[in-house]
Amino acid sequence: MSGYKKFVVVGAGNLGSLIVEELLKQKAAGAVEEITIVTRPASKDNETNKAFAARGARIAAADLTDVSALTTALGGAHVVISTVSLTVIDAQVPVAQAAKAAGAHVFIPSEFGGPTDHLNDSLLGLKGALHAKLREVGPPLLLVYTGPTADTSWVGSPLVATGNAPISFTARNDVARFLVYVLVRAPAARLQNQTLRLEGDRASFNEIFKGYEERTGKKLDVTYRSLDSLRAKVAENPQDFDAYLHLIWATDGTNGTPDNGLYPEWNPTKVLDIIAPRK
Ligand SMILES: NC(=O)c1ccc[n+]([C@@H]2O[C@H](COP(=O)([O-])OP(=O)(O)OC[C@H]3O[C@@H](n4cnc5c(N)ncnc54)[C@H](OP(=O)(O)O)[C@@H]3O)[C@@H](O)[C@H]2O)c1
């Protein structure tokens, strides 16, 4: 058991809200003592924060550039989980500084996608390029790699590369469940300066599309693109997120050896069961 009982989520948006939900479950079970949501002052009274406050979370407003206000907001936290949006990934430097000043044992940066350690000057490379700075100013890091969410947005008229490469997918509620379970139950040494590689499912797009067609009887209109055309698109416009992601998924789409064994009963949802649930 880590002994960690006081948790902070910075930026409880799409993913962070699900992590707060899991923390609330663990609080009800007696495994978590305190949950704080750090939010920008303008978001303090939004519906999500008000609802979480009513269920026992503490809401602390702080500007993400104000280290002193952040340090006060994070005071007493054992673990600081950042789930801020990709658009403000650099804002995590003052958050990590404040986490260290507040005495936190672990800082989890907003990763929650495929591995970024080896990426540098690219869209998701922003995350990887930040690790060294976060290590320098903050508490020990825990990097959480989940692969793409098992989302439905790419089903319909999908555009993919070859479609044959295996990809690690994890649904967001499975990410939240795994993360909170491990933060409470794994030994602290497994959480400091470590990486968690989650894999809810490992499948290629073509396997998923075939399964979808078989289950639903609906024919998908898939457009395949060559790797060279994707490379050309990224070279022409490095901000082309769609081409960039499909290039990664077609060439390097898994998270490596999964750490799923840290939560033997995890039983994550398969992509196919999300996009085409059995009736
Ligand atoms: N693997 C995947 O397929 C996948 C998919 C989606 C996201 N992700 C990753 O998951 C992480 C969290 O993403 P998310 O979708 O949960 O984030 P999100 O909901 O878009 O944003 C999370 C929170 O960031 C805070 N924030 C602070 N400054 C902000 C600003 N200037 N603009 C917008 N938000 C700001 C907001 O909290 P307050 O309003 O409370 O301050 C917001 O609720 C990111 O690292 C993202 O890249 C991965």
UniProtKB/TrEMBL annotation:
SUPFAM superfamilies: NAD(P)-binding Rossmann-fold domains. Signal peptide: none annotated. GO terms for molecular function: oxidoreductase activity. The keyword NADP applies. Residues 7-122 form the NmrA-like domain. It comes from the Eukaryota. Coiled coil: none annotated. Keywords: NADP, Oxidoreductase. It holds the Pfam family NmrA. This is NAD-P-binding protein. It comes from Lactarius akahatsu.
